[in-house]
Amino acid sequence: MDLDVRFTCRGCGECCRRYEVPLLMRDVDRLAEEVDRSFVRVLVHGKNVDPVLTKREWDLGCVFLDPEALQCSVHPHRPTACRLYPFALSRTPVEGGRAFVELDGQRLTLVAFRSCPAVGEGEPVHLWDLIALHREVMADEKEKAPVSDDL
Length: 151
Ligand code: SF4
Ligand code: SF4
Fold this sequence. Notes:
3-stranded antiparallel beta sheet; two-stranded antiparallel ribbon
């Protein structure tokens, strides 16, 4: 199913410098098959410990962002959050949400992040691709295991 939303990445690299990128455990496992585990950093919020991608100090870019070509060096293995961006399916109503989806008894709102300059241009966005990624996030929340000592 296509939405009335278009997106083709311009490759500006802005999102790879702007955000803390959350990692699902399946992201960690997938990337750890390709590269050394030093890409994982943890953020502590009270009792929660969340794995995120490591950033470089000098430009706050993700360690996998090629600073000159502005390309992702692990593109086929990139985390789920990177595959979803600049979209999200939110369980709470969001002002400016673009569409509503009934999924597993939940009403979800499609959110497009306006911080990405490429929203609205390029190829049609396929809703079922976003839903598949959203399900990965939901499954990870259910299965969430403590961060292991060897990270
Ligand atoms: S901000 Fe948007 S256009 Fe720029 S790299 Fe990220 S997804 Fe692509
Ligand atoms: S993994 Fe790739 S797409 Fe994701 S933030 Fe890093 S460089 Fe960007």
